[in-house]
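Record type: monomer structure entry
Structure origin: computed from sequence
Chain ID: A
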Amino acid sequence: MPVSDLSRARIEAFLEMMSAERGAAGNTLSSYERDLDDLWSFLAERDTSLIAAGSDDLAAYLASLTARGFQPSSQARRLSAMRQFFKFLYAEGLRGDDPTGILDAPKKGRSLPKTMSIDDVGRLIERAELEAAIEGPEQFGRMRMLALLELLYATGMRVSELVSLSAKVLAQEGRFLVIRGKGNKERLVPLSRSAVAAMRVYGARLAELNAGKAEESPWLFPSASQDGYLPRQVFARELKDLAIRAGLNAAAISPHVLRHAFASHLLANGADLRVVQELLGHTDISTTQIYTHVLEERLQHLVQTHHPLAKLDKKRD
């Protein structure tokens, strides 16, 4: 069912605001558009519109998502899109209220992030180092993989942030990297010595390949793709291939799993949750709290190791 011209105009105005004022990414805007189109179709079947819909209508829509088999996480995303949209309508004077204010978020089960052990990350990096040292026509690609891997594990960047790094980072001095994340927000993250070394070796080879070219790519990881930089799907595929050669379970390894490993390993070794939030680029601390299981394990170990009563129990045993 096509969206009416008036509803389409409201949705497009909302998407323009999210892009211009909030810096929403293209994928985010596409998701908002799909979700709002689906909501409009549901409301049309109830003989109402986006402007006239009440809380009961929106609650019924959420209930329909359950009936259609949507997971709580997907329902929560749809509710977030609705809240953003109706707040926009209210702010623009197109509605006198916000019907999403009394809606409850769907209950989500606590799912722990998939991660890797420190030993497995070490095996992966060791394999990448070994392959990057092998001379031949494929050496540049192996150097690129080592640089990608070291940067990802050193910073916990989102894969989209990693592959779209500017080539200007090669000119930066010191062991810090400025990352442009969601909403074009910048954050400063430290680099490990091994990440700096891998990036410099890769950068030197990249400069050699660029020598004599009329125009150099502005990206650190250039590619013949539509965006001009390495597609994240290509990196993910090459990472799995590397995992196989390292004797690891490729199905359990991805760029996002390495991001989780970065956060989990920091917390397990004493980092503060707020620091990890900043490094990951999370706007809300609640997003970072998926890692509290790591903190709980560490705190339990600290109590069992250092609390006087715990020590006394060990002596009694």
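Annotation 1: DSSP finds 14 helices and two strands in the chain.
Annotation 2: The chain has two domains: 5-91, 118-301.
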